[in-house]
Amino acid sequence: MYSSIVFLPLLGSVIAGFLSLYNRDRMAELATIAGLLLSLLFSIIAFAEVAIGGEPVTVDLARWIVSGDFVAHWRLRFDTLTAVMLIVVTGVSSMVHIYSVGYMSHDKARARFMSYLSLFTFAMLMLVTADNLVQLFFGWEGVGVASYLLIGFWYKKDSAHTAAMKAFVVNRVGDFGFALGILAVYQIFGSVEFDVIFNDAGLLSKTDISFLGFTLPALEVAGILLFIGAMGKSAQLGLHTWLPDAMEGPTPVSALIHAATMVTAGVFMVCRLSPMLEFAPVSLAVITIIGGTTAIFAATVGMTQFDIKRVIAYSTCSQLGYMFFAAGVSAYPAAMFHLTTHAFFKALLFLGAGSVIHALSDEQDLRRMGGIWKKIPVTYAMMWIGSLALAGFPFFAGFYSKDMILEAAYAAHTGVGNYAFWMGCAAAFLTAFYSWRLLIMAFHGKPRASAEAMAHIHESPKVMTIPLFVLALGAIFSGWLGYELFVGHNMAAFWGDSIFILPWNHAMEGAHHVPTWVKLLPVLLAASGVVLAVLFYVVLPDMPRRVAAAFRPIYLFFFNKWYFDELYDRIFVGPAVRFGALLWQRGDKDTIDGFGPDGMSALVYRISGYCARIQTGFVFHYAFAMLIGVVIFVTWYYLRIRGVGV
Amino acid sequence: MAFQMTDIIPALPEIFLAGLALVLVLVAAFGGEEAGNARRVTRLSLVGIAIAVFLLVQGDAMPSLAFGGMFAADSFAFYMKALVLVGTFAALLLSLRPEGNDDINKPEFALLVMLALVGMMLMISADDLLALYMGIELQSLPLYVVAAMRTNSLRSSEAGLKYFLLGALSSGMLLYGASLVYGICGTTDFAGIAASLSSGDLPVAFIVGMVFMVSGLAFKVSAAPFHMWTPDVYEGSPTPVTTLFAIAPKVAAMALLMRLTYGAFGQIADQWSQVLVALSIASMAVGALGAIMQTDIKRMMAYSSIAHMGYALAGLAAGTPAGAAGVMIYMTGYVFMGAGTFAIILLMRRDGQAATKIVDLKGLSRTHPLLAIGLLVMMFSMAGIPPLAGFFGKWYVFLAAVQAGLVPLAVIGVVMSVVGAFYYLRIIRLMYFEDTDAPLDAEIPAVNKLVLGVSMAVILLFFAGLGGVLTATDTAAIALMGGAR
Q1: Which of B173, B228, B229 sits opposite A630 (nearest CB)?
Q2: What ipTM is given for this predicted complex?
C-alpha cells in the first residue's frame, strides 16, 4: 500500500501518455483521476497509521548506486513529516486533476496534460518520501522537469516557452547549490542516507571544511548550499524571478505546482534536514533573513500588479517567506503547519481565479474585470473564503498558522527573529490590502470587460466548483483541526523523530506565552489592510492613482518588481548572450569550423587534387618517384648513422 | 643439395599445385580454343586449390625447414597460405562467369593464376634470399601477363606494360639490396643473416642493402611512394584480374616483408622500424587523400588498398609479436573485404557493358537492395566501424603501434582513417540517398552471391570468432619471430 501511494500516479501518467497518442482524452482523465483518488485514500490511511499512530515505516525498493563507499538506495521513508506532505500533495493534486477536466475542456491535448500532472505528482511524492539526499534530488529534478513541461504546455505561445525555460534555468542555479550541498554532506558524513546524517550531525558539528580556499564550519557550508537549492525551488528572494512568469502555464498548474506543492519543496527540505540544520545556527539565521525579506518584498510587489494570477503568485512567494523564517527560528512545526493550510487556501484562490478567468473568456487583467459578483456567486464566495484565510482572519486556516509563525519569530528573542517578526507583520498588513484590492477590482464596481465577454459570462460547471468546495473546507477548517496536532502542547508526540529541535531553541514553546499584543497585532493589521483597500478602491476610487503619483519612484520600484528582472538581464543574461554570440561567431564558426571541419575538408580536397595530379600516367614519372623514395630513405639512414657517429 | 622425402612433405601443397599447373598447360594447349575449355581449366584449378587447402590442413603442424633451409613451413606460413588460397579461390570463382568483352575467357588465365599462386606460396615460405627472389618472380611474371590479358584494349596493354616495367625496376632494387646484404653477411639464409647481425655495429652498406630490399618489397604491397602503378593497373586491367590483384598478391608480399623484417632482420628492429613508419604514414595519407577525387570505383579501390597497406604497415613497424599478429588480423579482414567488394563491382554492368563509375551506384538500394546491404557492410568495415572485421584490424595494429611507443603514428593513422571514411560513406550516400534513372543489370550470378555471402558472414561475425583468430595469429607471430631459429 505504501509504495502504491507513490507509484499509482506514475502508472496513471504512463497510461495517459499512451492514450494521448490515440486522442482518448476521456479515458486518460479517468485513469489519472482514479490513480490519484486511490493514492489519496492510501495517503489518508498512511497518515492515520504513521502520524496519528506514531509508527514510521520504511519501504526498501532496490539498491540504486553502489560505487566504492558510496551507496544510495531506492527506499521510501514514511514518517510524520512525509505523511503530512502526502495528504497535502495527493489532496490538492486530486482536486486539481478533477478541476482540470472542466478547465481544460476546450483544449486539444487533454490526455497529455493529465499525463504531465500525474507525472508531476509522482515526482513530488518521490521527493517527499526520499530516504536519502540523492533520491530527494531525483524527485527534486523530476518536479522541475514536470514543471517545465507544464509551464510550457501551450508551447506554441512564445511567452509560455520562454517562461518555461526561465523557470528551468533559474532553478539550475539553485540546483547547483543543492548538488554542491549534497557533495558537502557526503564529504562530511561519508553518506547521503538521512539516518546516518541525522545520527552523526551532533558529533560532527564542530568539523571544518575547506571551501573555495577558506576553512569554514562544515555544517554551515552544507546547510547554506542546500538552502540555495531550496531558494531556487521555493522562489525566495534572488531566485524568485521565475515564479511570476510561470503563471503562463494553465491555471490548474499554477494551483498545484506553483502554489500548493512544488514551491513548498524547499520548506519541506529545510524541515526534513532539521536534525542537521539545528547544528548550523548561521545557516538558520540566513534562512530567517531571506525568508523575512522575501515576505515583505513579494507583498510590496503584489500590491501593484494587475494580472490576477501574478498577484496571487507574489502572494505565494510572500507566504513561502513566512514558512522559511519560521523554519529559520527553529519553529519547523509552525512552518509545516502554514505549508499545509497555505496549500488549501492558495490552491483555492488559484482555482477560483481560474474560474474567473474561465468565466471572462480568458481575461486575466484586473483592469478589465469588475461587476461580476452577481453572475458567478459560487466563485465569488470561494474567493472570499480564500482571501479571508490568506489574510489570517480569526478562525480561518491562515489565522492559526500565520499567527503561530509570527509568535514564534517574536518568541525566538533573537535579532533575526525580531527582524522577521516585524517584516512579517508589515507583510500581513499588505497581504490583506492586496487581497481585498483583488476582490474589489475583480468582482465589484462597474463592469470593465468587453460587452462580448460580459455576454458570455457564466458560472463554472460542477466539475470545477466541487473541487473548490473541497478546498474551501480545507481553507476554513484545516487550521482549527490541525492546531493541536501540529503546534499544540503535544506536538512532540505527533512529529516523533521526524523533526528535531535543540532544547535551547525554544521559539515553539515560547510562542504560546507571548504578550497579548503580539497575538492581536496581526489580526488588527489585517483588518486595517482591508479597511484601507475598501477606502482606496470603493470609497475614494481616485486615491490609488493619486498615491501612485505622489510616491511615483516608490510606486515604480514596486511595480517593476524591484527591478530584479532588469538587473539580471543587465548582469547575467545580456553578457551571457553576448559571450555566447562571441563564442558562436568568432569561436565556433570562424575558428573551429574555419580551421576544423570546413578548413580541414577544404585542405583535404586541395591535397587530394594534388595527389591526383601527381598521377600523370607516365611510367618515367612513376619510376622517378620510386627512385626518389629510395634515395630519400638511404640518405635519411646515412645521415642518421653519421649523426650517431659510425 | 640433394632432395629427400623430408623435403617433400612440408611443401606438398606447392608441389601439388605446380604439378597441376603443368597438367593444365596440356589441357589448355589441346583442349580447344573455345570458351568451354577456359571454363574447364578454371574449374580444374578451383578443384586443385581446394585439394591444396586440404593438403595444407592435413600437413604436419610441426614447424619444419625443407630444401636445405630455403623453405619454412610453420604456423605463420600456414595462416598466410590459407589466406592466399582462399583469396585466390574467391578471385577465380568470380572469374567463372563469361565477362563479355573483358576477354579473359581464355584457358591461359586460370593457368597463369595457378602459377602465380605457387609463387605466392613460395614467397610466404621463403627463408632464404634466393627462395625469396624466386618466389617473387614466379608470382610476378604471370601477373604481368594477366594484367594485359585484354589484348584488344589499349588500357589493358598499357596497364600490363607499366606493371612490368616498374616491377622490373623494383626487382632490380630488391636484387641489388639482396646482393649487398649477402656481401656483408656472407650468407643468403635468413637464419644466418640474423645470426651475423646479432653482434657489432652495422656497416652502412648493409643499411643501404636493407633499405633497397624493403623498398623493393614495398612496391609489391603498393606502399607509397612505390604505389604509383596501383591505380593505373587496377583501372586498366580486366575487372577479374583487378579482383585477384586486390586480394591475394598483397597478402603474399606482406608475408614476405614480415619474414624478412621479423626473421632475417629481427635483431635490428629499431633500424628498419623508421622506414616502415615512413612508408606507413605516406601510404595512409596517399591512400586516404588520393581516393577522394576519384570517379572510377576500381581506381578508388586502388587507393583504398594503398591506405589499407599503410595501416597494416603500422602494425609491422611496431616490430613486436603483437604487431605481427595485428598485421595478420588486418590482412584477414582485408581479404574478405576485397572479395566481397569486388563480387559487387564485377556486377556493375549496364546493358552488358561494364559500368565502373562511382556514380553508377546511385540508387542501388532501390534497384538491388541485397547488393546495397552487402556493399554497405563492406564499406563500413573498410571505414573501420565496430564491430566489423575492419575495425578489429585497425584496432590491433594501432594498439601494437601505441604499445611500441609509436603514438604519433597511431594518431596519424586514426586521423587518416577519418579522412578515408569520407569516400566510403560517400558510396553509402549514393546508394541510399540518391535516385537513378539508369539501373544496373538485374542478374546476380550464384558465384557472386556465394562470395558476397561468405564475405559478409565473415565480416559481420568476425567478433564472434575473434578468440580463435587471436590464438592463431599469436602462435603464428611467435613462430615468425623465432620459431625456425
Answers
A1: B173
A2: 0.86
